[in-house]
Each structure stands twice: as C-alpha cells, then as structure tokens.
Amino acid sequence: METKKVKKTKYLEQRRVFSEAVQRSVVKDVEQGKCTVIQASHELGVCIQTIYNWIYRYSRHLIKNRVMVVEDKSEAYRSQELERRIKDLEAALGRKQMEVDLLSKIIDLANEEFKTDLKKNLSKEPSSDSESKNEPPTTTK
User: Fold this and answer.
1) Among 44, 68, 69, 131, which has the highest number of CB atoms less than 10 A from its own CB?
2) Is 55 helix (H, G, I), strand (E, B) or coil?
3) Burial (0-12, 13-18, 19+ Cβ within 10 Å), 140
4) What is the pLDDT of residues 109-133, one digit of tens each?
C-alpha cells in the first residue's frame, strides 16, 4: 500500500483594509450590545484582536487598562442610602454645635452682666436648703 504525502498549501488571503466608518460602526454595535466581539469578528472575517484594537481606538466607554466596578443594585442603593444618612447626621451635628456655641455665648454674656461665673455655679449641686425651697407647698384641709 502506497501512502501519498499530501502537501498542505497555504492559500494567500487578500489583505483587506476597513474604512474608519466601518470600524466605528462595529465598535458602536459592540458598545450597544447589538453583537459581541466574536460575532463581529466572524461576520467580517477578521481575528478577535482586530476588533479589540478598534474598540481601544474608537470606543468612548471601553478604554484599555480601565477597571470597571460592577455592583449589585442593592449594594449601590445601600451606598447611596448610607451617604444620605451621613449627610443628614453631619447636618444635625452642625446644628447641635451651633446651639452649643450660642448657649456658651449666652453664658459668657450673662457672666459679664451679673459679674459671676455661671459655669462654676451651674456645675455645683444644689444645697439641701434649696431643694426644700423648690418643693411646692402642701395644702392642708
């Protein structure tokens, strides 16, 4: 039995050059989700890397070496909710700080007016005589 060696010949393919308009339309279709990179490469008869090169060159969104973070909708909503809560708490803290500053200023003005130190006087506990004076009088029948 005689075996023949079949010589594999490579057929030369004609080099094709795609216009910029065609390249941009392919990139636009991939960005909009009308087709995938693999589908576009099969349709045009080019390798996948060629399509990716076009994407890197003409895409507005898909940029090389950019990391896209994908979150679940609930995570994004929770993040927004927490940011809103932080903003509300910071506003409340600011209001309380303004209130403390106002009360401190009132105490300082009262100290100047009455020539006394209200901060020291307010920090002392009332004496036992003053407690009995503050009690309402008892009525007898």
Assistant:
1) 44
2) helix
3) exposed
4) 988 998 888 777 766 665 665 555 5
